[in-house]
Structures are given as C-alpha cells and as structure tokens.
Amino acid sequence: MAAEPLRLGKYSLGVGDRFAHQAKAQLQAFQKAAAQGVQVVPVWNKSNREHDTVHSEPQSVRAAADAAVLALGWDRPYFVDADHITMATVDRFLAPCDFFTLDVADAIGQPPAAGVAEAFLARHPELIGDTAIAGLAEPIRMSREAALQAASHYLHAVAEAGRIYRYVEAQKGAGTFVTEVSMDETVAPQAPAELLLILAALADKAVPVQTIAPKFTGRFNKGVDYDGDAVQFEKEFSDDVAVIAHAVRTYGLADNLKLSVHSGSDKFSIFPAIRRTLSRSGAGVHVKTSGTTWLEELIGLAEGGGDGLQLAKDVYAAAYPRREELCAPYASVIDIDPSLLPAPAEVQTWTPEQFTAVLRHDQADPAFSVHVRQLLHVGYKIAGSMGARYTDLLEACEPSIARNVTANLYERHIVPLFIGR
Ligand SMILES: [Zn+2]
User: Fold this and answer.
1) Which tens digits make up the pLDDT trace of 355-406?
2) What global pTM score does this model have?
3) Which fold would CATH assign to domain 11-292+410-419?
4) Which of 55, 152, 240, 320 has the fewest Cβ atoms within 10 Å of its own Cβ atom?
5) How far is the CA of 101 from the centre of ligand 1 (A)?
6) Three-class DSSP category at 254
7) Distances (CA, A) of 342 to 295, 303, 308, 375
8) Nearest-5° angle of CA 359, CA 319, CA 323?
9) In Å, how far are 131, 173, 357, 402 from 395, measured between CA atoms?
10) How far is the CA of 27 from the centre of ligand 1 (A)?
11) How far is the CA of 45 from the centre of ligand 1 (A)?
C-alpha cells in the first residue's frame, strides 16, 4: 500500500527564486546537466524570512516550480523546500512543500533536561574514547567530559528536530517528504566528532534525515566567495563525509544521507574541494545557492539599458541609505564596507556595461565589487516594494534575464560542482 518513500538523489542544488519568475530559466540549467549525463535534482527553496520580506506565500514557489516542470517536460524528481522552518513557521509550508529544512540552530546550547545527556552516553558508550572511521587519517577522539559537553550542547536541538519532524509527519505522512536538519546559522562550527554525536542522536529520535547542514569553519557570506581557509574547509568537509558514511552504517540512518552546504552560492574557491571529495568518496551533496538568482535578474535588467537599467539603479539608490536595516536580518552572513560603496549619484551615470561589471561575480574583472553585490543581494526588499513596476520589467526583459540566470547556475555552479572542467 505504502508508496516508496521520497528520496533525495545524490546531487541536488537548492535554487531560490524570490519573485517566482525564473523557475524555467533555472530548470534549463538542470536540463543542460542532464544532457551531459549528470543528474542534479532541482530543489526550489524560499525561507520564511524571504516570504515575509516580499509578502509572498509558499504556494507561489510550488506553482512556479510545477509550471516550469510542465512547460519544459522535466520528468525527473524535483522538490519544493520549506527552507529554515521552525515549529513557529512551518504551518503555511505544509501543503506546498515536500522537502523540509528543520532549523534547530536556536536550540543549540540550550541544556537538555536533567539526566538526558548522561542517559544518552550510557546508550552510546561507543562515542567515548577513540572511534576509527574509514577515510579519516586519525580516529575521532572524545573524552567522556567532551562527549558529555557536546551532548549537553546539542541534544536539545536534536530533540527539537524530532519534534518538528513528527509534526510534519503527522500532517503529511511518513515518506512523503525529504527531511533536512540545519544547524548552520549559529556561531561555532561543529567538529566531525560533534557531527557524529548529533547523527547518533538523530538516529535515536528516528528522524529520517537525508541531508544535514552543519556549520563549517569560515565565513559563508551571501552571494560572494568563501572567506576562510580553503585547505581547512576541505579537510573538514572530507572528514564530515567520512563521518556520515560511518554513521549510516553504525546507526542505520538513511543510506542516501549527505551533507548540505548552505549559502553555497558563489563559493568558487571551495567548489574544487567539494568536487574532489565527492569524486574520491562517491558521496553526494546538497548545495543551496539562495538569492543569487535575484542578482541575475538585476544584471539582466541592466544589460538592456533603458527602463531596466534605471530600475536597477533605483534599487541601489533606495538600498544605499537603508543598508543597516536591510543587512540586519543577515548580520552573520554579510560584510559590507560602506566606505567602498559608490554614491547613488555616481551609479546613476553608469552605462549597462559599468553596472553589470560591478555586479556580476567575475573576480577577474577589476570593476567587480563585493560590497555593491552584497548590498544589492539584501536589497530585494526594495524590488519587492516596487510591485508591478518590477515584475512587469522582469517579463519585458525575460530573454536577457533568463540567459543570465541559466548561465549563472550552469556555468558557475553545476559545472564546477558536479561535472568538472
Ligand atoms: Zn542555511
């Protein structure tokens, strides 16, 4: 009677589409990969925060994805992700979504009830001492004190993941959705030893997690490159992949369990590390690209000059004085130096070529500005408030926008991550 449970494929890419106009252009990037023989699963994601900012409903993401799939005849799996939901925000995502990213970052560090951490370790004596793991140069080493500390730090968050999971399961039915657990929007990165403990705890709670987003070392700022030690990242990512394979064998977790890398847009300097690790280990990955499609909309608008360029300049002019307010919700993932932002009056004089050179993420172009790019990244609220002026221009400039959206996903993300050059 029960259908096969929904499974997330080995390679998947989360794509954001804030104004629900680019699903087709995005899907074309996945079709190009499929034509190369590489299956990458599209997952449309839009967080509660984004919906609130532009006053949209999760159903609009489902409608746009379904329409694109129908229009292009995509006959492979795809998902709509309730991105970063909590118990407080999950309800409106229940009907349209079949992928749930359970965000338990806020529960990290909250102590579990008395005796819970001790009981957990009594059930898992294997976590104490040395754990040899295939693929790791050295065994994972946790003293009893360290294990107790990690258990006290993470068990409440895992219990919260269990609580949200059960709630969604009760509404939708087991096996009808993909579960991701995210712990990335927090301050301290999780070491491989902590990831192992978290996975053991998720197995105890019978959360059928298919992808998990730990916090990695380094800055994952929105829409710009990784800021951190790429060598350290590669070691951590590779160790985490080995820990996941070990946890799947040891704790009976889903055999397609894989890492999820959030704010993965434009992390060009670590894509080769991810690609090498996947090739070597045979593991899969989920990468969330989030809001860069919106930036490609601005680039596509600016390219044609005229009204589109003027709108892109107006977004900048409106965002410039409001930068603190716009950045506030993204404080942990945005770093702008205001002294390096051009004055709006100067931007008003730019040609299409000047505007797109500053905004397009081409690090070889001396005109490219990480500061302008980050400000416009969080500036989608301005476009949202423009209403039909913005969406009408999206339709009028569709060919140049679509070309940029598809190329960004395919050339700058899918190829380096999943195909290789
Ligand atoms: Zn995230």
Assistant:
1) 999 999 999 999 999 999 999 999 999 999 999 999 999 999 999 999 999 9
2) 0.95
3) TIM Barrel (3.20.20)
4) 55
5) 9
6) coil
7) 18, 19, 20, 11
8) 100
9) 56, 38, 23, 10
10) 22
11) 11
